[in-house]
Amino acid sequence: MPPATGGGLAETELRPRRGRCGPQATRAADRDVAARAAARNPKRPARGSRRFETASRWALLALVTLLSFATRFHRLDEPPHICWDETHFGKMGSYYINRTFFFDVHPPLGKMLIGLAGYLSGYDGTFLFQKPGDKYEHHSYMGMRGFCAFLGSWLVPFAYLTVLDLSKSLSAALLTAALLTFDTGCLTLSQYILLDPILMFFIMAAMLSMVKYNSCVDRPFSAPWWFWLSLTGVSLAGALGVKFVGLFIILQVGLNTIADLWYLFGDLSLSLVTVGKHLTARVLCLIVLPLALYTATFAVHFMVLSKSGPGDGFFSSAFQARLSGNNLHNASIPEHLAYGSVITVKNLQMAIGYLHSHRHLYPEGIGARQQQVTTYLHKDYNNLWIIKKHNTNSDPLDPSFPVEFVRHGDIIRLEHKETSRNLHSHYHEAPLTRKHYQVTGYGINGTGDSNDFWRIEVVNRKFGNRIKVLRSRIRLIHLVTGCVLGSSGKVLPKWGWEQLEVTCTPYLKETLNSIWNVEDHINPKLPNISLNVLQPSFPEILLESHMVMIWGNNGLKPKDNEFTSKPWHWPINYQGLRFSGVNDTDFRVYLLGNPVVWWLNLLSIALYLLSGSIIAIAMQRGTRVPAEVAGLSQVLLRGGGQVLLGWMLHYFPFFLMGRVLYFHHYFPAMLFSSMLTGILWDTLLRLCAWGLASWPLARGIHVAGILSLLLGTAYRLFALEPDLLPLFQYNYRQFSSPEDCLSSPEFLDHIRKVMLVIDAAVTNVEDLSSLEEYLVSLGRKHRTVGVKLSSFSTVGESLLYMLEKCLGPAFTPATRAAWSQLYGAVVQAMSRGWDGE
Amino acid sequence: MWGFLKRPVVVTADINLHLVALTGMGLLSRLWQLTYPRAVVFDEVYYGQYISFYMKRIFFLDDSGPPFGHMVLALGGYLGGFDGNFLWNRIGAEYSSNVPVWSLRLLPALAGALSVPMAYQIVLELHFSHCAAVGAALLMLIENALITQSRLMLLESVLIFFNLLAVLSYLKFFNCQKQSPFSLSWWFWLTLTGVACSCAVGIKYMGVFTYMLMLVVAAVHAWHLIGDQTLSNVRVFCHLLARAVALLVIPAVLYLLFFYVHLILLFRSGPHDQIMSSAFQASLEGGLARITQGQPLEVAFGSQVTLRSVFGKPVPCWLHSHQNTYPMIYENGRGSSHQQQVTCYPFKDVNNWWIVKDPRRHQLVVSSPLRPVRHGDMVQLVHGMTARSLNTHDVAAPMSPHSQEVSCYIDYNISMPAQNLWRLEIVNRRSDTEVWKTILSEVRFVHVNTSSVLKLSGAHLPDWGFRQLEIVGEKLSRGYHESTVWNVEEHRYGTSQEQREREWELNSPVQVDASRNLSFMARFSELQWRMLVLRSDDSEHKYSSSPLEWVTLDTNIAYWLHPRTSAQIHLLGNIVIWVSGSLALAIYMLLFLWYLLRRRRNVHDLPQDAWLRWVLVGALCAGGWAVNYLPFFLMEKTLFLYHYLPALTFQILLLPVVLQHISDHLCRSQLQRSVFSALVVAWYSSACHVSNTLRPLTYGDKSLSPEELKALRWKDSWDILIRKH
Prior knowledge:
The complex is a heterodimer.
Chain A: H1 5-13, H2 30-40, H3 47-73, H4 86-98, H5 109-120, H6 142-153, H7 155-167, H8 170-181, H9 184-190, H10 196-215, H11 223-242, H12 246-266, H13 272-304, H14 317-320, E1 332-334, E2 342-347, E3 354-361, E4 371-376, E5 385-389, E6 411-416, E7 422-429, E8 437-442, E9 454-458, E10 474-478, E11 484-491, E12 500-505, E13 516-522, E14 528-530, H15 538-555, E15 577-580, E16 589-591, H16 595-620, H17 627-651, H18 653-656, H19 667-691, H20 698-720, H21 738-743, H22 745-763, H23 772-784, H24 789-807, H25 813-835
Antiparallel strand pairs in A: 1-14, 2-5, 2-13, 3-4, 4-8, 4-12, 5-6, 6-9, 7-8, 8-12, 9-10, 11-12, 15-16
Chain B: H1 3-6, H2 17-31, H3 44-56, H4 67-79, H5 101-125, H6 130-142, H7 144-150, H8 156-179, H9 184-203, H10 207-227, H11 233-265, H12 278-282, H13 288-292, E1 303-309, E2 318-325, E3 340-345, E4 353-357, E5 378-383, E6 390-396, E7 404-408, E8 422-426, E9 443-447, E10 452-460, E11 469-475, E12 486-493, H14 499-507, H15 520-533, H16 547-551, E13 557-561, E14 568-571, H17 575-600, H18 608-629, H19 645-666, H20 670-699, H21 706-712
Antiparallel strand pairs in B: 1-4, 1-12, 2-3, 3-7, 3-11, 4-5, 5-8, 6-7, 7-11, 8-9, 10-11, 13-14
Helix pairs in contact in B: 2-5, 2-6, 3-4, 4-5, 5-6, 5-7, 5-8, 6-19, 7-20, 8-9, 8-10, 9-10, 9-11, 10-11, 10-18, 17-18, 17-19, 18-19
């Protein structure tokens, strides 16, 4: 009887493999498991069959990988237009090819890889990537999509191997692989030019290599141990290099490492020197190596992007001087400020601009009716100011005067070059920020009053130091009121030409809004130096770009009155993301998880917490359990615990984030929860099987087989023949997509019926004729709704396929023949219903 | 039974004179000259207004914390017979004679005073020496920032009191557990832990951190209990159940009780009404209730209604229209339909009235019998004053061009037909045939032709739209958002057939009959929700500071300055205590780590019971510091130095414990021990000296000369006010 193969499955998996890293999940229960396996399997298989087993394991892995690749690459070229964020990341790939500088809130590795893939596949970087829906036409985009799909395809085998290592159970691994392969969300997300497949690839790679290296724990400092340890480090660098979300997996690996070291430290058989070696190895591979690689990606990033581009404005003046094409590039200006210098002053806060004034007055009723002072983002003659001494009005550029440098702590006057008015402040409230003072232009031809005096200070420098162009961060403190010149960043109304408000803030808090630097500097009496001398060093660039990225991330705030995705929406698959199909295009792509998979995951987490705490309490109460249950509990607590930790670390921090969130942020967590589902159900079913041991053991395992079949077949059905979809219209409801149909209760009911028929056939395999009448009528029913006979063979094919996948090596050709014979008999009986009447 | 006749009745009292003396000193330091200064000091201006609201029974909404804290302060006002008549508008304003300053400041001062003996008790219950316990109490006594904060109408000292009470009662309970579980005192202390925790949460949301800490410690102890195999399963279950009831159920019930009392006390409408929903407002006396009393409940075809946006952001407003049309061409060159404007208007106005019309009939009055409007019905909304109907079409809205324009339809006869059918969806319906109810129903209007929904976009229209808020039609597929939800606020059945008559009717007030009540849970959940989501954008303050500045006391807050002299009150800590507290914490962490690592290698420096004590102290004191301090790094609101005080008290508790540990375990000889004790005494006297030096800034009772003030400015970042003459 074919289905009895389930029993054999359990035994083959639990045997420790020789010549590779030993099992990791249960160091203590290890011996028990081995003993148990030996006890149940008294005749150890011959060497030949072991070789066969290894081969079949590899074959299974290959199969999983192949299936994953097949689904991800299937119709990858469609739709041939920009989908969703491809418009950003494709564009950024082009920037790398064109070597123009840009700004993004994520670290550069992901986009660099996309750019590389595009470059290698012959994309020339000329496509504009303007908005979603634009057609690619002759531009080569398949290289970039193919690269993302390639990395996305590896998620399934990685998850498969991770679960296999954690649970030592093929069926758990297969269930996980099936969940991920057939999840529409993972599928969709892997098919486009996005950062997510790259990020998830590195996250899963880190997880896999961490688990692998954990299982090498009995052979420390061996080659595989070093290999997996350093691979973990490399993957961590990759994950962090793509998005800052990579920090979560770093946290997980960190926690795991601390626990690991703690265990080693408590092992009194190890000398302190050995423990020290362990510590050093981890510091090297998990801290030094990733940091070096991460820094290297930035080095490459800055090296490749050497031309001025759209990202310049986000960075400081000194940084811009690096970029060819920028007006600061190769410029030469005097280095130290002196009295009489003509300068422009730029705010250090991003996107505020230059200190500016013009011949327009503040309108009636808004402070004093004096000349406006604003900040302005563009370069213009009205941005020029002259530094003068506060007490004399003589022209310092007179050649008879010696050059006098401006120093930290000096009292100065800033005269607007075009209008000859002084920068001025007084006790009037600022136009928009009522708690601050108004800043105006005042005086005639440079003669004003004591409210025009400002003390110039350099942040974190000593008194008496000279002030450098570009590099010095300066503060202007109003002498009379003691307030600090700053920009609030608020846009003035029309009377202020929609430039930004400048205020003098009485709150002496250090914010970038009140810190400035000098950008242009003209002084004929001073020698010019090339700005290349002032170029920031690499660590400075690195620091600055991180500050800008963090600022950018914080700036992505949701607005009121906007629909935003909330973290609690995600696990319940509340709302998807529209990838394509805004403007009635032919292809509509919608990112939505497969509800069966997602809700099963959700259920599994609840079930895991329940069963986990029951087991933990039972153990704490000292309940005695048989070795078999103890082993399974260990798998559940340790293996499952690790995966659950991964899910929590990749999910809960989003609740604390203030930035705009999207549905796709959940996918790394979803990978972990799918792995948990695999481990949980397999272990629970095994526990059930053990509990029902008085019945035929196969019974429990049977349930496991049926369940995974159920999930898998459901999907194979439509992957093989999409035309089948319209046939499943229950209650006259039209399903717009396979997802809708598959999640409908009617469909699940149908699947259950199909399985019942197959089950009945299996049970009555000796006497199929007793079912004959039922099957004939069933056939008639199917004909009346318009099912083609050939569709049955599709179902049969997918059934055989799933059996093969789940049973692996146990699915011998003989079994296959038996199954197809059985299914053939069923279909034959049903087809009589067609011919009848 | 008559035993007491046979034996003498003896009362033996144990009086711990330490405790009495500490309490006395605590009371003296906190209550001395409590009414000075007789002026509004710093945040009293903020809490005072709420005390006035309580006295006048006017409803208010404050997002800074649950109502229990405000109620405690108001209790002081009640005891002093305060009538609430004082204008809290300026720091430094002199109190009028009707303000009972002493009783208003009494409760926080008592809480601050009682913290001193409680510190003593806690260290004793942790099984450290008397000496250490007295030390902890004395440090609390002379800590200037704690004194300042206790002597005013502020909540921190009350919060600290309940935090310490929670720790103390848990320790008492924990010590009872070993000797006599389920005894009377066991139950008492267990329950008191729960009560103190919920009071702490009720004072300020910050109390949640201490509550969480207590829950974690209790959970760890319960976990050990589960592992104790000498107990039967039933007994373990009873233990767990008792803890769950005392630490989870009782606090939850008490928290609800605070709100219950709050809502019972505040029954009059007030200035914060606008933030709340119409239903909530209608449940208050006066305000909206005066208008809505007696309105018919069910909206019928022919009803005259005003529609209020449920979202209420940026301001609460009503659906509005007026004679003016959209400009033919906008500033940016786009065109409009040039039909009548529809906006959202934040003031009551006759133009806010709309008539619900049945599309199949022509009449604008209610028919008899009434035909109520139900979920899913098709309606037209006719603007009362202009008799044009609400319309939307595929024309870009003025400010949000991705959405559709909403207008009142004017037929220009240019092949732009009216699209004025809307389907009514009741969002909070219980059944699919529910009737549209005044105030209670939250509804959406889905446009029949384009399936877009009527939405408040939040943008302000320019001058041509009189700066009113923009209304748009947004595609239904974008998901649910509160800005698409409306409710009927004012309602009457229209009876006038003629337009002129109708205009007169709209201008007349609605008739009156009975009031409508909302259940407590509905009011509680709304109030709680609003408190959590309300964001005040007042982000800058002269004395705001960042958490990093607190540990080293790099900042202070000037609370009050005498109007003429230079007497002033500052929130300024005793820097010796702050620095040594942080040092003690660092030493504790290092020693703990050291012992932990050594134990892992099987080297036991401390005997088992000393080690357990050491761990428990760390969990409660270092843990208490961490949970009350670290979360501030994640908060985006404006922070002040006084936020650090709860964390500081835990540091103060840790300080003598660490000193005793050093003396007991690290000083090897008697000589070392004596030297160390001498050092401790010297250190304590320096703390006393600092405390005494800073005393004028703490009590504000002495006017110092500018030189003396300058001499007190030990750190450049301290802002001590010096008058220029």
